[in-house]
From TrEMBL:
<dbReference type="InterPro" id="IPR006140">
    <property type="entry name" value="D-isomer_DH_NAD-bd"/>
</dbReference>
<keyword id="KW-0560">Oxidoreductase</keyword>
<dbReference type="GO" id="GO:0008873">
    <property type="term" value="F:gluconate 2-dehydrogenase activity"/>
</dbReference>
<dbReference type="InterPro" id="IPR050223">
    <property type="entry name" value="D-isomer_2-hydroxyacid_DH"/>
</dbReference>
<protein>
    <submittedName>
        <fullName>Gluconate 2-dehydrogenase</fullName>
        <ecNumber>1.1.1.215</ecNumber>
    </submittedName>
</protein>
<feature type="domain" description="D-isomer specific 2-hydroxyacid dehydrogenase catalytic">
    <location>
        <begin position="10"/>
        <end position="313"/>
    </location>
</feature>
<dbReference type="Pfam" id="PF02826">
    <property type="entry name" value="2-Hacid_dh_C"/>
</dbReference>
<dbReference type="InterPro" id="IPR029752">
    <property type="entry name" value="D-isomer_DH_CS1"/>
</dbReference>
<feature type="domain" description="D-isomer specific 2-hydroxyacid dehydrogenase NAD-binding">
    <location>
        <begin position="112"/>
        <end position="290"/>
    </location>
</feature>
<dbReference type="InterPro" id="IPR006139">
    <property type="entry name" value="D-isomer_2_OHA_DH_cat_dom"/>
</dbReference>
<dbReference type="Pfam" id="PF00389">
    <property type="entry name" value="2-Hacid_dh"/>
</dbReference>
<dbReference type="InterPro" id="IPR036291">
    <property type="entry name" value="NAD(P)-bd_dom_sf"/>
</dbReference>
<keyword id="KW-0520">NAD</keyword>
<comment type="similarity">
    <text>Belongs to the D-isomer specific 2-hydroxyacid dehydrogenase family.</text>
</comment>
Length: 323
């Protein structure tokens, strides 16, 4: 009798030519309709499989794995993994992997683009033009803030934070950062970045970019009190996770002239966006696309596939420690 092959669940249609590699080792179960991805649908899919390739749309915790007796590995397509309850997975001995490095530069590019868009009011200006409101060159219309010569504040100085700092040197920006732990002196020198405490970062940044992981400790770390410490001329850009910012407090600061502008690629209740943010002109809103270049999204899937193959111990990658 033929030996039955391990089964894996691929939670969303990704890139078929890359996911194809899984077919050499596994029976692949796909659920094409992402709207099915509620907790019960996820639990039902996991119950049947040895491994899963998932995205940040799939929240996987204790309940979802309760009946997943065979499950040994989850490969997340993404560097952030706050969609996974790591304690619950570890308690069951289930390996979890993510996709660091491959998205660093693309995400830093986009963070920079958003910061520039907020500072120079790019989307607001475009809406103005498209609405037929442009009456001719307006000397004082839609004036923004410069990036060059300004102070950049980076909260979270991991790979992507360092990518932003690297780009800032080309804009002659002064770079301040705050991080859980201070970087070694040679790394600070390489990025021309100065470590400061959180309050100093808030007070001195002309442009503050959030690139820290989401956790209980970073939940709403940018709240009303933090925003009140920022300059009213400053901008705030978030490419990390929505829950890091208290969105109601941010909307209030933007509406009442206590912050010049903001750019958000991530939202606490995404894909829902708080109507108080949608109502504002001085904010750039994008649908979680910071890692979204074609090449990078393909590289993320390729790495997640490698990780799943290695974690389940089959194929030429067997034994390679998953990233
Ligand atoms: C991630 O990888 O965590 C991003 O948010 C999506 O690319």
């Amino acid at each position: 009798m033929a030996e039955s092959r391990p089964k894996v669940w691929v939670s969303q249609p990704l890139f078929d030519d890359i996911v194809e590699r899984l077919h050499a080792h596994f029976d692949v179960v796909q659920v094409p309709d992402v709207s099915e991805h509620d907790a019960a649908a996820i639990a039902a899919a996991l119950r049947e499989v040895d491994g899963a390739l998932v995205t940040l749309n799939e929240r996987i915790g204790r309940d979802e794995i309760a009946d997943a007796a065979k499950l040994r590995a989850i490969a997340n397509v993404g560097v952030g993994y706050n969609n996974l309850d790591i304690d619950a997975l570890q308690a069951r001995g289930i390996v979890a992997t993510n996709t660091p490095d491959v998205l660093t530069e693309t995400t830093a590019d986009f963070g920079f683009a958003l910061m520039m868009a907020a500072a120079r009011r790019v989307t607001e200006a475009e809406r103005h033009l498209r609405a037929g409101q442009w009456q001719g060159w307006n000397f004082k219309g839609l004036l923004g803030a410069d990036l060059h010569g300004s102070t950049l504040g980076i909260l979270g100085m991991g790979r992507i934070g360092q990518g932003i700092a690297k780009r800032a040197s080309g804009f002659d920006m002064r770079v301040l950062y705050h991080n859980r732990s201070r970087l070694p002196a040679e790394v600070e020198r390489a990025f021309n970045a100065t470590y400061v405490d959180f309050d100093t970062l808030l007070a001195q940044a002309d442009h503050l970019v959030l690139v820290l992981p989401y956790s209980a400790a970073s939940h709403h770390i940018v709240d009303a009190a933090a925003l009140a410490k920022m300059q009213p001329t400053a901008t705030l850009t978030n490419i990390a996770r929505g829950g890091i910012v208290d969105e109601a407090a941010l909307a209030d600061a933007l509406a009442n002239g206590r912050l010049a502008s903001a750019a958000l690629d991530v939202f606490e209740g995404e894909p829902a966006v708080d109507p108080c943010l949608l109502a504002l002109d001085n904010i750039v809103l994008t649908p979680h696309i910071a890692s979204g270049s074609l090449a990078t999204r393909r590289a993320m899937v390729a790495l997640a596939v490698d990780n799943l193959i290695a974690a389940l111990g089959v194929g030429p990658d067997a034994g390679r420690p998953p990233s």
